[in-house]
Amino acid sequence: MPVMHTLAFDIETVPDTSYGRRLLGIGDLPDDDVARAMFFRQRQARNTDFLPLPQHRIVAISVALRSGDGFRVWSLGDDDSPEEELVERFFDGLDRYTPVLVSWNGGGFDLPVLNYRSLLHGVRAPRYWELGDHDREFRYNNYLSRFHWRHIDLMDVLAGFQPSGRASLEHIAVLLGFPGKLGMSGDKVWDTYQTGDLSAIRRYCETDVLNTYLIYLRFQLIRGVFDEAAYQFELGMVRDYLRSEDQSHFTEFLSAWSSTD
Predict the structure, then answer these.
(1) How far apart are CA 153 and CA 150, in angstroms?
(2) CATH number at residue 60
(3) How is 110-172 classified by DSSP, letter by letter?
(4) pLDDT of 10-36, one tens digit each?
(5) Which structural domain range is residue 224 located in?
(6) Is 153 in contact with 103 (CB distance < 8 Å)?
(7) This prediction's pTM
């Protein structure tokens, strides 16, 4: 029986100020001023600071991998890795292992942003874009169809694919007794990026991935994929990993999780 791979993932983004300069025709203004102009334009158009997806640049991609008898969490590349390298690493992993992808709002945000950035950088991803032309299995189960299981967008699935049923990762994590956010949130990423603290952004992204993966394990329980013993085993594997890693954000996450048991 082939080894199954499950990959929960999350991305963090900042305004693509290079694109903003071209889009708005504002020349050589500093990044902060360009971003302010981008946010202002969006507020005028949509009454929100949340930029259109093509205006996002990826600064972190974090993943949680369950494979064989192992589990681990990490961020792709390092603090200095350019966006193109992060995107290449993500899609190379898909091409190599064909994992089941797990996300929270990945269909509405993370994957479309990855699509646009791979288009920008010319990053090839034939396995990701496969629809059955070269592998018949992908005709009936691929990464691109909303109703297939090779990518499970938990937010979309649990809402019954209805916009009115959607909930935030934070709210569902806390509902289930998982830590949720630990002092950081997506709306703080741009300010944190401007200070140069990429490590803080990557740590935050990793805790979001952990919350997503733990919700996925619970989802597998209610689907009947896991019985209670298997579910507890998988939770124990995550706890053991967090204990084994000498990283402050994992220790904080484990402590917050334990306090809700």
Answers:
(1) 10
(2) 3.30.420.10
(3) IHHHHHHHHHHHT---HHHH--SSS-THHHHS-SS-TTSSSEEEHHHHHTTT-GGG---HHHH
(4) 999 999 999 999 999 998 899 999 999
(5) 5-258
(6) yes
(7) 0.96
